[in-house]
Amino acid sequence: MDERVREHAEVLVDWSARVDPGDRVVVSVAEDAHDLGVAVAEALGERGAAVTTLYGSEEMTRAYLKAHEDAAGDARGDGFPDPAVDRALFEAADVYLRLGGGRNTAGTADVDGDTRRSYAKARQAVREARMATDWVSTVHPTRSLAQQAGMAYEEYRDFVYDAVLRDWEALAGEMAEMKRILDAGEEVRIHTEREDAPDTDLTMSIAGRTAVNSAASVAYDSHNLPSGEVFTAPYDAEGEIFFDVPMTIDSTRVRNVRLVFEEGEVVDFSAEAGEDALASVLETDPGARRLGELGIGMNRGIDRFTDSILFDEKMGDTVHLAVGRAYDACLPDGEPGNDSAVHVDMISDVSADSILTVDGEVVQRDGTFRWEDGFGN
Amino acid sequence: MDERVREHAEVLVDWSARVDPGDRVVVSVAEDAHDLGVAVAEALGERGAAVTTLYGSEEMTRAYLKAHEDAAGDARGDGFPDPAVDRALFEAADVYLRLGGGRNTAGTADVDGDTRRSYAKARQAVREARMATDWVSTVHPTRSLAQQAGMAYEEYRDFVYDAVLRDWEALAGEMAEMKRILDAGEEVRIHTEREDAPDTDLTMSIAGRTAVNSAASVAYDSHNLPSGEVFTAPYDAEGEIFFDVPMTIDSTRVRNVRLVFEEGEVVDFSAEAGEDALASVLETDPGARRLGELGIGMNRGIDRFTDSILFDEKMGDTVHLAVGRAYDACLPDGEPGNDSAVHVDMISDVSADSILTVDGEVVQRDGTFRWEDGFGN
């Protein structure tokens, strides 16, 4: 076994999930994540945890849902049965580790949208029980994910392990500095002037909001490995922003999005590809036209975009905004924040000709933070 | 997908497990049983059941147990933690379907025996909760199992589906006839005189005992697919018997076993290979030297021995005896029957030069039952 698989498992179990002896751990293993599953089982055996292993097979899920669709309308009714076993198992669990890495990222592509929604609705209580555990989601590098990223298999393995096998303690410290700045700040401005792209000049308020140090650990209320971003919940955006990082919305490739904000609301938008998908998001509800998140990517182990939000939004030299729902962790107690049925992230490359200021002070210039070497004035 | 995989899933779900709409079904999928898992998920979606999928990975189990061994003795103690999640999930389940079919039948070969026993002991309550469901165990034909059987992959697939895809209703009816004979009978005699093997002439009492029609369905209290045997709990064996079908006891190949019984107890034994393993079984406890089972194989879809007890003991033209523990289902209420920590099956080929009589009447001659064509006098 590649020694990095074992290191990945150790980061997941120790840094991310903080597994203690006696913990009841549920591990879900995707179709091609077996090697990581073996390494995680080994780490959990060493730590003295109890393990229950689920099989996260998208092909089995697809077969179940398609058969349900075909049988719907007959005597047994259209609904899904009570998922009492899944609920019971997550209610009894302390930790949930999801090991992604299937054989086909389009493995459930032909399942009807109504079926998905009805299935998700029937499983609401399962989801809540799962989210009440110390849960962490990661991926094992598979050929399917390499293909999605447009990379060779060995190349993609290097990419994933560079992102996952960080000095998380050090990165968490660096991100704590960014959190302090955002927590104390009142206004953020992103300003980019590049020859090859429309200008960005956007200001937004963050007064009273709390930033989250997303350091890939439940100890930081951060549930993805890799992570490496600091995010907060902005409001009252004014100005315009250009998102040049490719993304996929509801299976549609969307390119070069431009949003114009007035009094916190999107008043104009365009996209060079996928504009209809973007329009559909913005029309979901009133909250879909307002910001839910400002995130600052700080994981320098991620050096390229792979059309996977788990990696893209954490990349150093990027900032991202999401329209739609804000995270509760960023809001003062009792304040509702922006509400919406959607939360769609869009990413800007800020590696060149770009500044990020908080209350007029430059925090990042051309991708370099002010506490890093090479930050000039 | 081979259409037989789908037929296998349908037999399992409908004939064997009798799944109803709304049933909570736990499916355990071995490392190479994914195709059968997909077919079972499809069948369960059609039937309107709820599905929870476990991953039955022997390599993960081995990694967990070996890591536990290596860590034992440190501060956290030697014991296994409470498997509360597994217990909760089986307690919430109606049906458990185990889909065997790993990648290596020796996948846990280097796990220490004490570790296995300690793990099994810690999971006693899980096992009890699992046995309280309508459980069925089957196997998907894999290359690993083909290798164990000494067969080519395609050849082994044909072998498995011939055994599984029977007319179970018809076979259950035929087996009911055998059950009637055994339930009414008081004494069974097996008598074989072949030129190439030691003689068998064994009589045993079955008075007061109840035979089980093991028709591969929970409706018959039968939990393996394939099945196809009728068994009861004999006692007071007298005489000798020769078992010519190869078998494996605790990873040791055992060949050509001869047992001599007096007053129900083994008083002499021999084996051409593996005699020490046989001796070790017989010395376990007093019950290990007495009979726990007489079984009559009636599945004519199984046409050869494959060193897998799931198939071998069900084969038509065979009878088997087990030393050790008797099954409760064969005993009158309140009667203890033979008790032992072991239950080891041994099989005789009765296809030629052989008769099976019950109370002096010939029931099977040279492998042919008296209700079949070709049964002469």
Secondary structure topology:
Two copies of one chain form a homodimer.
Chain A: H1 3-16, E1 24-30, H2 34-47, E2 50-56, H3 58-71, H4 84-91, E3 95-100, H5 113-122, H6 124-131, E4 134-139, H7 143-149, H8 153-164, H9 168-184, E5 187-192, E6 200-205, E7 212-214, E8 229-232, E9 235-243, E10 247-249, E11 252-262, E12 265-273, H10 275-282, E13 291-297, H11 309-312, E14 318-324, E15 343-349, E16 354-358, E17 361-365, E18 368-369
Parallel strand pairs in A: 1-2, 1-3, 3-4
Antiparallel strand pairs in A: 5-6, 5-16, 6-9, 7-8, 8-13, 9-11, 10-11, 11-12, 13-14, 14-15, 16-17, 17-18
Helix pairs in contact in A: 1-2, 4-6, 7-8
Oligomeric composition of the shown chains: homodimer
> Into which percent range does the helicity of residues of chain A fall?
25-40%
| Shape type of chain A | globular
Give the largest interface pair and sizes: A-B, 53 and 53 residues
Topology, number of strands of chain A:
18
Radius of gyration of chain A: 21 Å
Number of helical segments with 4 or more residues of chain A: 11
Class by helix and strand content of chain A? alpha+beta
**Secondary-structure element order of chain A, as H and E?**
HEHEHHEHHEHHHEEEEEEEEHEHEEEEE
The average pLDDT value of chain A, as a whole number, equals: 94
CA distance, first residue to last residue of chain A: 48 Å
Query: How many domains in all of chain A?
Result: 2
- Percent of sequence in beta strands of chain A: 25-35%
Q: Low-confidence segments of chain A, ≥5 residues, pLDDT <50?
A: none
Main β sheet profile of chain A: 9 strands, antiparallel
Protein name (chains A, B): Aminopeptidase
Cofactor (chains A, B): Zn(2+); Co(2+); Mg(2+)
InterPro entries (chains A, B): M29_Exopeptidase, M29_N-terminal, Peptidase_M29
Pfam family, one (chains A, B): Peptidase_M29
